[in-house]
Amino acid sequence: MTQKLRVVFAGTPEFAAAELAAIHAAGFEVPLVLTQPDRPAGRGMKLTTSPAKCFAVERGLKVAQPTSLRRAGKYPQEAAEAIGLLRATPHDVIVVAAYGLILPQEVLDIPPKGAINIHASLLPRWRGAAPIHRAIEAGDAESGITLMQMDAGLDTGAMIREGRTSIHADDTTATLHDRLAQMGADMIVKTLRDLERDGALAFTPQSEVGTTYAEKIAKNEAALDFRRPAEKLARQIRAFDPFPGAFGTLLDGVAIKLWSAQAIDGAGEPGTIADVSPEGIVVNCGAGALRLTQLQKTGGKRLPVRDFLAGASIAKGQRFHSVSTQR
């Protein structure tokens, strides 16, 4: 009889919680869940637990939240304690999904069957922190999930399995995230079952051709620069939904979150509102124009343009700041 695989899981956000839920539902033993420490979040800066921790606590799984796993880092005592806990926890493999902490080689050497990373891109494209956002922002035709054997590099390990999905014209980071999370969940369960049955997995070295890096999304990127082409701004709006949310600022200083827009033909001074109607607010861009169809006032709700205009004074000829640094 095949011994049930014991899986230490390391992950933090909703994406990770979906992968952990699938592993747990498939019947694998999860003796330990590593996730980032509780941190202040939201307007009230209330101490918030990660989605992965919430799932683990609800299922009675053991949780550890070290600030670091690097003995040579800023928190050597925490790292040493966490590494000691890992060594003392019987397990076969570590599965990592959007954990957010670096796993040094010392940690990768602990599990007898290695560490598997669930990464939301088609490696080597979009290694790094924000692959879903960057794929949409760049206008990629497809995205996917890559399972890889972790090494000490940044998403450079040998590949185990790959799944692909088209990026739809109306995909946001939220919708693509959910599709990839489900794909990753299905793939990791299949892979763990293969590992449990065969005792080892086949790997394919990762190419260095076509490597790109998905830098972490900075809040200051959310301000739209209307001097850019409308097509790129429409992708930026979809890429930044739900976080950080793209916005434009009118010359009178009013900032408006922009959640949905289409690139259309148009010409004129970038940032100038060319038309206002229940079908959309049209803003000239560096090339073409944007038709804004879902907007949000500060402190308000996301609204279709028709409802937004019922409570906002927006008129043809008004201007948004065209430079992204203005707020």
According to CATH, the fold-level topology of the largest domain is Rossmann fold
The ordered string of helix (H) and strand (E) elements is EHEEEHEHEHEEHEEHEHEEEEEEH
Strand content: 25-35%
User: What is the CATH architecture annotation of the largest domain?
Assistant: 3-Layer(aba) Sandwich
Rounded radius of gyration (Å)? 23 Å
Low-confidence stretches: none
- As laid out across the biggest beta sheet, the strand order is 5-2-1-6-7-9-10
Summarize the amount of helix as a percent range.
Answer: 25-40%
Number of E strands: 17
Distance between the termini: 64 Å
**Shape, please?**
elongated
Instruction: Compute the average pLDDT.
Output: 95
What is the count of structural domains? 2
Quaternary organisation: single chain
Which superfamily, in CATH terms, is the homologous superfamily of the largest domain?
A: Formyl transferase, N-terminal domain
The CATH class of the largest domain is identified as Alpha Beta
* Sheet having the most strands: 7 strands, mixed
Classification by helices and strands = alpha/beta
* Tally of separate helices: 8
